[in-house]
Amino acid sequence: MQTIYQQMDSGELAQTIASLKDEVAAAKARGLALDMARGKPSPSQVDISRPMLDILGADSDLHDGSVDCGNYGCFEGIPSARKLAGEFLGCPAEQTLVLGSSSLLIEHDIVGTFWRCGTCGSEPWSAYAAAHEDKPVKFLCPVPGYDRHFGITEDLGIVNIPVAMTEDGPDMDEIERLVASDDSIKGIWCVPKYSNPTGITFSEDTVRRLATMTCAAPDFRILWDNAYCVHDLYDEGDELANIFDIAHEAGTEDRVVAFASTSKITFPGAGIGFVGASPAVLAEFAHHLKAGLISADKLNQLRHVRFLPTLDAVREHMKKHAEFLRPRFECVEQKLAEGLGSTGCATWTHPRGGYFVSFDGPEGSAKRVGALCAEMGVRLTTVGATWPYGEDPHDTNIRIAPSYPTVEELSAALDVLVLAVKLVSAELAAEALE
Amino acid sequence: MQTIYQQMDSGELAQTIASLKDEVAAAKARGLALDMARGKPSPSQVDISRPMLDILGADSDLHDGSVDCGNYGCFEGIPSARKLAGEFLGCPAEQTLVLGSSSLLIEHDIVGTFWRCGTCGSEPWSAYAAAHEDKPVKFLCPVPGYDRHFGITEDLGIVNIPVAMTEDGPDMDEIERLVASDDSIKGIWCVPKYSNPTGITFSEDTVRRLATMTCAAPDFRILWDNAYCVHDLYDEGDELANIFDIAHEAGTEDRVVAFASTSKITFPGAGIGFVGASPAVLAEFAHHLKAGLISADKLNQLRHVRFLPTLDAVREHMKKHAEFLRPRFECVEQKLAEGLGSTGCATWTHPRGGYFVSFDGPEGSAKRVGALCAEMGVRLTTVGATWPYGEDPHDTNIRIAPSYPTVEELSAALDVLVLAVKLVSAELAAEALE
Fold this sequence. Notes:
The structure is a homodimer. By secondary structure, chain A is of the alpha/beta class. Chain A contains 14 helices and 15 strands.
């Protein structure tokens, strides 16, 4: 794709750059301070869940069935919360644990357990690494993807291998080719619905191929972080196939470990976290986790299930969230289309849910765009973070997190982003002429 | 020490045993079902903290200073809670993290980090273990001690070495001798105040010797679980020396990692957990933990600090707990003194705080006593659990957890325990005559 700047002669380009620089100077003078760095709901959006804080009071019954939520015990989570967890994850309640406020921490712990102890009788991943000096343990990372996922495997010393995202999810031809012959590839990170940051939902074919593909490693694990399973922007949400059902049918159910939480449903960082897996994998994880945990915060579990007792109640609640998020996503779409649609400088995704839009500018532009936005007072997610080790090889990708600012602030921030992309694209074109 | 049964001739002994067996049969017929297995507060005791559930409501200000507790961020814990954590642990607030509801899980995670990554530049403990096939990594475990501590190191494959408790804390002569020459001994588990289960508080001399002793392992760590730091039964509580001050003076502050939580202050399993360490150790732990945690549940932190804003408020609250616990501990003391005081069959501790009484019967008696109590409907902590691997070499120790039953139930349970100890002691004496 040629940008409009690449079609200009050097004089026209110089004039355009000068004019864009004037606009940048004017933007700097406005002294903006806007944050589009992380996928945080805005304070007013969070306020939707404030009624939950009234649910438990001094006189409340603190029992869930026969479980006293105000005392020790019930390691696996309270029955009502496990029921909800099963509905979130698409597996039987008995195959879930409801734990503390962070599903990321559960992911961290379970991958750490595979590393230290192995899974389903295979040697620990750390032992595999020690025995194969020239063949480190590897993980597949769909890119652009979620930096904190990549950080968990990186911290363990697992080598993160990027795999391209397509419109249907990660590139399955490439994945099937890789895992078929290399037993050092032990897993893949997935955000299967409204992926972070592309917003893409894996197609049924992708889900099926992931669940049924032939893996050289018998202990290959799909880390299925269904973080946005109910986070639709529109009444008609994307449909995600149930990977547990497909895996169960194919006899590969030990392969799937699924996660979700209420962090972006009730209070970010103060929700309840869910994990679901096959009976065997759940039992081995519970065995090790029990060494350090008597029980998670069951009062918060009780508060949640009384506020949101069923998946239908959750869906109703999510509609209120969508009212905040929809205008923000639509603002992103509109501003980018208006500002860059005819420039040939950029492509971006059009999510129908989740928290992010993935944006790609010309090769070699993203870091410069990020720096220029910062100079103009707009903070983006660290550019490159959507790739393992922060290394986007073509330096094109930017994650847009539109949820936190007001629509007015977001609009101003996108003006800045559009301007930065234009100037950097023009400068790149000029540099290519030199 | 001779028991009264050892002083009897065989005829007298046979008669005594027959009479005790009649009493056991009568007790069985009563069909008791009492639980003294774990250190759980009773439901009425937990109710003391119910007003905390009214603290946060839909209209509350959810900020702690500038921190929005209802959104992501503030990994290290909210400022007010860190201040309280510093007061609990005896170190500056900046040297603390306030995390989720379980301090045990923090202990699990930090020992896991030392195992996988090492500490302060030393090789990972797992690497040490791999490099010294004949010299496994070891941990010192004061006995009788806390089974869940031993379980954490056992789960990692660390070898637990028992060290005797004295009236002043663990046997420091033995500990100094062991750690001076053996660099495979990487740490010690301590419950320094009202130890689980002896109720002993470490003397100032013990604290000083632990903090200043010469360790062959440069990465020796004291896991200082100050679980009962404010859990006094009487106005005049035991005094525990501040190990951070002593270590700081001695230049050994990297050696100390301290823990506490509000689990037995507010709601068991739904409190907030604290960790304190030197700046270097805290930073390295935070670095790895951050790979899996954005932030802990700050709403629960806020709820806690608004309910218990200062250490003085905590102490006032603890007086209410003491009103429940004191009569239970006094019941244990009275029943044991009345029932066994003149028999020579048993010794036990006389704690002024905490949750447990440690009881020792004749050699070879404890497992049989535990089984006999179970037959009579009284469940004790699994006998042997106070020793690493559940192996009490002399089979004498029983942990008494008097907090959960009512005083009446407890009284009945202790009658059963006394009866069981008498019968087993008499049978042991008879078996020795054979």
